[in-house]
Design a protein that fits this description.
Blueprint: H1 7-23, H2 46-58, H3 80-92, H4 101-114, H5 117-128, E1 134-137, E2 153-157, E3 162-169, E4 180-186, E5 197-203, E6 210-215, E7 224-235, E8 239-240, H6 246-258, H7 265-283, H8 289-317, H9 362-365, H10 399-420, H11 443-450, H12 461-472
Length: 481
């Protein structure tokens, strides 16, 4: 399938490109995305990153294409192909990983699918303005990949109209910056596993009731945190999906996180691969046959991920097998074209494109993968039907797990390649050690170290394979106690 870019899409592209050129300047350019960067990274000037979120919100670029059944929330209306355009232009500009990713791309589609009108009216406009940041309260020390084993409890106080939350969450990305946390907690006494859970929206500014402790990572940063709740208060009207129905809401959100919402990651992945290939050409590592084979394989696997993601999107949009169509009603084809019918060029996706925009010299191209076709991919907030749709969950129960397995392992192998092409120099830091700066890493070292976690967070590979085995292949279930 292919997303055809028509005249309206190209006008939208020009608008997005012009806006980014005008606004991603001055103090914001220090935030430019680097290899190894990710939305939850703890590096960079947090004040500047918050200001960038507000700048995006003022321009209407947060929540592009959200479902408008109940009205707009301060953002732009956009077709599916226009959302692809925005993701491409954002990546092309080198704009930073988003602090508001969790609110925009995880919570917002969940509220659109399961929240009531009051919840949507309260929280979505603030997310769209870039004013309120969110974190995700799921994993616990004894309930990580096995989320149904969580122990955090929320007790209802009918007189006060609130819930009191007690427990601990872990690996909570950007909790130290978040204004709110959506928390999965046990609200039914004596309930077990996935029964009796509820999905609550909890303000983080509760001194003495919520404590955030950063967890230092291999990269030297501390984007992940432990969060301790000691009688933290959540209002009853901020319970999403009804009491005891938290598991259904949580799984819907995870389908967005693990599934088709990862499509736009591949735009960043292609940029990272381009930089690694360029480095291999500069160092001469690409002349080594085994390493060159790994580079080509990495490129081919990224193409396979793209096709799998598009297949998943097409199947969800088109369960009956008729030609897939975009939101404007035009057919979705198998290669990107412009309005004149020519293939659409996407320089952000070219593994043999210089990241600065220049072409790789002709004499070097024989040592690198051939030019990739455009990665015409929907953005991270895309649901299997359309981003922010009423039904963000995929029809194929194994699709999110397959997608997670594919990209987690691929990105980890890219990190390994990033240091392999540098050889012994990869063991050296970019700056001389000092007492004030004892742990400096360059972009490729960060990519290598952080990607070690790709096969763990968001659901470990082992859990994803169990889901596929039990829910898709219907193999006997693993014994659980």
């Amino acid at each position: 399938m292919d997303f055809a870019f028509g005249p309206e899409d190209e006008r939208f592209r020009a608008e997005a490109r012009d806006w980014l050129a005008e606004h991603f300047t001055g103090p914001f350019t220090v935030l430019e995305q680097q290899p190894g960067g990710h939305p939850g990274e703890g590096r960079g000037d947090m004040a500047a990153r918050r200001a960038w979120e507000r700048e995006l919100g003022t321009g209407g670029w947060i929540g592009v294409g959200w479902d408008r059944t109940d009205g707009a929330y301060g953002n732009r209306a956009a077709t599916l192909t226009q959302q692809v355009v925005w993701a491409e232009e954002y990546a092309r500009a080198g704009a930073p990983g988003r602090l508001g990713h969790i609110g925009e791309n995880l919570l917002a589609p969940t509220l659109l699918a399961h929240g009531d009108s009051a919840q949507r009216a309260r929280f979505l406009p603030a997310i769209a303005r870039g004013e309120e940041l969110w974190c995700q309260g799921y994993s616990e020390p004894d309930a990580g990949s096995d989320l149904a084993g969580l122990r955090t409890r929320a007790v209802r106080d009918p007189a006060a109209g609130t819930y009191r939350i007690t427990g601990q969450k872990i690996w909570t990305s950007l909790a130290h910056e978040a204004d709110w946390c959506f928390v999965l907690a046990r609200t039914e006494e004596g309930s077990q596993r996935h029964h009796g859970l509820s999905f609550l929206l909890v303000p983080m500014d509760q001194p003495g009731r919520i404590e955030v402790r950063p967890i230092r990572q291999l990269t030297g940063t501390a984007e992940f945190n432990e969060v301790f709740f000691d009688g933290a208060v959540a209002r009853a009207e901020h319970l999403v999906g009804g009491a005891g129905h938290g598991w259904r809401v949580a799984m819907s959100l995870l389908a967005v996180e693990r599934g088709v919402s990862t499509l736009v990651q591949q735009i960043g992945f292609a940029q990272e691969l381009s930089r690694v290939v360029r480095l291999a050409l500069e160092t001469g590592a690409a002349e080594e046959p085994v390493l060159r084979d790994r580079l080509v394989r990495q490129w081919a696997e990224l193409k396979a991920m793209r096709w799998n993601a598009l297949r998943t999107l097409g199947a969800a949009q088109n369960p009956a097998g008729s030609p897939a169509r975009n939101p404007a009603g035009s057919p979705v084809r198998d290669h990107a074209q412009d309005s004149a019918g020519s293939p659409v060029r996407d320089h952000t996706q070219d593994p043999v494109q210089d990241p600065a925009g220049g072409r790789v010299p002709d004499h070097a191209r024989n040592a690198a993968p051939r030019r990739a076709a455009p990665y015409d991919l929907p953005p991270r907030n895309a649901g299997p039907q359309f981003p922010g749709s009423r039904d963000p969950g995929p029809r194929d129960p194994g699709a999110p797990s397959v997608a997670k397995l594919l990209w987690g392992g691929w990105h980890q192998r890219l990190g390994e390649l990033a240091v392999q092409v540098r050889g012994a120099a990869a063991a050296l830091g970019p700056e001389r050690w000092t007492a004030g700066r004892p742990y400096e890493l360059d972009a490729f070292q960060r990519l290598f170290l952080f990607s070690r976690a790709d096969t763990i967070y968001g659901g470990s590979d082992e859990i994803q394979r169990t889901i596929i085995a039990e829910r898709v292949l219907h193999l006997p279930k693993e014994s659980r106690r």
